[in-house]
Amino acid sequence: MVVDHGVAHEACGPIDLPDEQGRFGRFGGQYVPEGLMAALAELDTAYRVAQADSRFTDELSELLSDRVGRPTLMHRVPRFAESLGVPGIRVYLKREDMTHTGAHKINNALGQALLARRMGKTRIVAETGAGQHGVAVATVCAMLGLTCVVYMGAHDMRRQSSNVVRMQLLGAQVRPVHTGRRRLKDAVSESVRDWVTNVDSTHYLFGTTAGPAPYPRIVRDFQKAIGVEARSQILKSEGRLPDRVLACVGGGSNALGVFHAFLDDPQVRLIGVEAAGRGVDTGWHAATLSAGTPGEMDGSFSYLLQDSDGQIARTHSIAAGLDYPGVGPELSHLKDSGRVDYHAVTDAGALRGMRALSRTEGIIPALESAHALGHLLELADRGALPANSVALVCLSGRGDKDLEIAARQLGITTPR
Ligand SMILES: *Cc1c(COP(=O)(O)O)cnc(C)c1O
């Protein structure tokens, strides 16, 4: 069965970015060593050709339907809406948590893996921080019969051991990285080194809408299905567009995925919710667009968190997927253009969102997604949500991975 997930849609008008240099306004580009330029150019060409080839887009659509579970559900959450205390407000959730593997990351992983296979590559490398992207990549590699190598900081491997087991069970080789601070940033460096060395056989499967061109565009295009589906689903349910669309922001892929279909609808307010950690004033946060400044990181020019010497700042968030000092160039451009508003929600605010949705609706959200819910609760506290308005929240993932943290933080006792 072939369903239209928007994967073959060509953007047009003011939303047709990036430009030929891979820039979104003043952001983006390719700040990479010479040795990477040829590989990026090969990827860019292959992607443009694939995108215009219905054999590619039809196969992707078919796998999104049959194996990922698209289109995902979108439905009202009346008891959660009622808990906001705003008369007549209606809240909808776009259920990316219902995809195979339980988060939106698989949309991009599948798209890039198909592209890699089309390019004649038999081997995939990826980096992972919390392990969520690594699990999505290992899953699609198993599905398509590709060799999978995932680099992971040795420190992160200890913190996220269940995802390490998952990846191995799925047939991936997980390589610990012992350099630097033994975290995500060091794993990125190792993946790039592997890619440059093995570029004939290997594709580097990048996980979010950041990094050098063409990755921000490719990842966004593979995530656009979220918004394309949600827009037509809400038009069907409500007969009109929502007043607000909210999504959490780590690198930006689920947010851009849901926002893109609404960029040309000026009556729809788009709200990106970042991680304020222990508070934006404390220095323990990951609120890049709220508190950062433009600079160069991971191959692109974008907002980032840096100290006064230009060193990348240490970050903190209770949600591993948001714990990143950068953000993609397109979301940076949408900050400058004013089309998207950004707010930051603390760890405590996210836990509140997680508990509220779990108790009112029987849906346990990922801590990342819970930041968007927490922001909605805070808007209601401040009387900033009009009566009878409609809000759509992108529920980027499910909370199973966060149970241990939730138990500890919310004082839930576990049997021993
Ligand atoms: C990784 C992750 C995120 C953050 O990544 P984006 O690229 O900003 O979407 C958000 N939610 C979940 C569930 C994740 O796993």
From TrEMBL:
EC number per UniProt: 4.2.1.20
A Pfam family recorded for this sequence: PALP
Class in the EC hierarchy, top level: lyase
N6-(pyridoxal phosphate)lysine found at: 105
GO cellular component: cytoplasm
Cofactor(s) required, per the database record: pyridoxal 5'-phosphate
Domain annotation Tryptophan synthase beta chain-like PALP: ranges: 69-397
Pathway note: Amino-acid biosynthesis; L-tryptophan biosynthesis; L-tryptophan from chorismate: step 5/5
Alphabetically ordered keywords of this record: Amino-acid biosynthesis, Aromatic amino acid biosynthesis, Lyase, Pyridoxal phosphate, Tryptophan biosynthesis
GO molecular function, one term: tryptophan synthase activity
Catalytic activity from the UniProt record: (1S,2R)-1-C-(indol-3-yl)glycerol 3-phosphate + L-serine = D-glyceraldehyde 3-phosphate + L-tryptophan + H2O
Gene3D superfamilies registered for this protein in UniProt: 3.40.50.1100
Subunit structure: Tetramer of two alpha and two beta chains.
Protein family membership: Belongs to the TrpB family.
Role of this protein: The beta subunit is responsible for the synthesis of L-tryptophan from indole and L-serine.
PANTHER family: TRYPTOPHAN SYNTHASE (PTHR48077:SF3), TRYPTOPHAN SYNTHASE-RELATED (PTHR48077)
Name of the protein: Tryptophan synthase beta chain
Gene: trpB
